[in-house]
Amino acid sequence: MEFNWSLMLASYGTVFTPGVLFIICVGVTAGIIIGSLPGLTATMGVALLVPLTFGRPPLESLSMLLGIYCGAMYGGSISAILIRTPGTPAAAATVLEGYPMARRGEAGRAMSMALFASFFGGIVGALIMTFASPIVSAFALEFGPVEYFALAIFGLSVIVSISGRSLIKGMMAAFFGLLISSIGFDPISGFPRFTFGLMEMMEGPPFIPTLIGLFAVSEVFNEVQKTGQIQQIKATLNQYLPSWADIKYCFKHLCRSSVIGTFIGAIPGAGGDIAAFISYGQAKRTSKHPERFGHGEIEGLASSESANNACSGGAMIPLLSLGVPGDAVTAVLLGAFIIQGLQPGPMLYKEHIDIVYQIFASMMLAQFVMLFIGMAGIRLFAKVILVDRAILTPAIFVLSMVGAFAMRSNVFDVYTTLAFGILGYVMMRYDYPLSPILLALILGPMAEANLRRAMVISAGDPSILFSRPIAVVLMALAVVSLALSIKGQKKIEARLTEMEKELEEAVKE
Amino acid sequence: MKVADIFGGALGILIGAFAIWEGTKMPVDVVMKIGPSFFPNILGGLLIVFSAILIINALRGRSKGKVEPYRLSDKGTQRGLITLAAGIVFCIVLDPLGFIPTSIIFLTFMMWVMGKRSPLLIVVTPALITLAVWLVFEKVLSLSMPAGVLADYL
Prior knowledge:
By secondary structure, chain A is mainly α. Chain A has helices at residues 5-15, 18-36, 42-49, 58-83, 92-140, 145-161, 167-181, 207-224, 244-266, 272-286, 298-322, 328-339, 346-351, 353-376, 378-384, 389-408, 411-429, 435-458, 469-487, 489-508; strands at residues 184-185, 192-193. By secondary structure, chain B is mainly α.
């Protein structure tokens, strides 16, 4: 598919109107606030605010959600630097460098670099997304059921292999999620499965309430049990942009980490936290001063922040062109697309090419908006992270329930949200990762429907699964990623404990 | 974590077994050989396999990580249970009582549970939050909230 320059320009024109810009500003501001509050992740923010887009036109809705996504990725660095708690998991690496800098009295320098790096990474991610997604989608037009089945399996295997300290629990979470996804009408014959005779279950568990439950309500149960005051470092925030010297010093890492971040984001299943840690590790290895890492090295901060923001652009590539989410947040976004009546995937380029280019444009503009709002509101955001938890936590619960109810005005959805909230809380407590469930809810139906379609084509002969080269490569990659993670499990565990220790030490000091 | 893992594994086996058992009641597809029960059967089977591995690992003392046991005397645990109860009550009364009263009562109660005692704060804030949420959903987005007892006034 040719890249359509005139449509691109026209889309910038459509997005660059006061109405849409205002919506992006609202989204970015909300995103920064959500991202900066520890415990409120980008996934949760988008899930909580999707209900606000019901009944709005697609461009407005998606622009706002993209704004939240980008804002939240940057917002995580604010609390990482000022209160040594990553606001989102993707900012965990930022804590290691950002907090020591703040303690040295360089909070302003760290914050401005975090903002600039986020902006830089976001721009790189959005650029690669703009030019890569049409190519991928043209490629994907050739995909048949076998390829889609293999793609779903690949996405699931990646999310399971990176989902934390126990591979077995990741597997259990994925298969449990897949079983949940098989609730409701069977995709081929329409037989209702596991509905317990409930009308509301016929179409499967409602997606948005399930998400809100898993990611927001579970956090409420978690949060109410905590005590203790947040201590903020005394910071002088007198710097809006990093100095030219700092930018030049980190430029190499900014470029490299942004590209790494985008590509990791584009792998279905791998998200911002992985992108940040890999880029951080890469920066440490290639730095002239690796010994300074962990003691407030601005290079490390720049690479982790640029990577996690670049990741959002990367994660949009498979979402838009294949209909497969690149990470947990884009999985939620997929739900928002479907609510708008848009099915991401190669057909989106055929049927709604205008909206695709408008998404490219609004993603790009969101980065500039983030830069300006980040600069203008830096002092305000530093205060927001101190908001009283005793007020915030109950309010999140109410907002979750309202959001779950709003889509279908159905009390059943409210109960679903609560049930998944309890499930999510219990799973988090006992170390079962939640993201595989989320991905399974999306990839499960895709895997099943395409597997069975393939079987219809081959009249029940399973060898069709190995008849297409792309599918074979994807399935081989799935096996490799699982095998590597089994082999590397000990290493990963050691790394994780080490990281946790570093984090804990940083917290104690 | 050992006991928790054994318990979690047992639960996984039960869920998997349930899925397979339900699958036996689904119609068989004669043409394609795989019907509605095909996918759930595989998933249920694999869930059982991994649950069993988790249990075996736990029995061999290879459980990973630690988890703080719940103590009823612990303030955090108490707050968690109270929140759970309050959440269930919230869902039950939301429709009959209506969003506005439910939300105000819930927020006031939860703020009190979480240690807020200033009367002004726990009276004014819940009302403001509820009003803001209601205005946004009901008036800006035209999504209806349960009116409940206030149905005649809204």
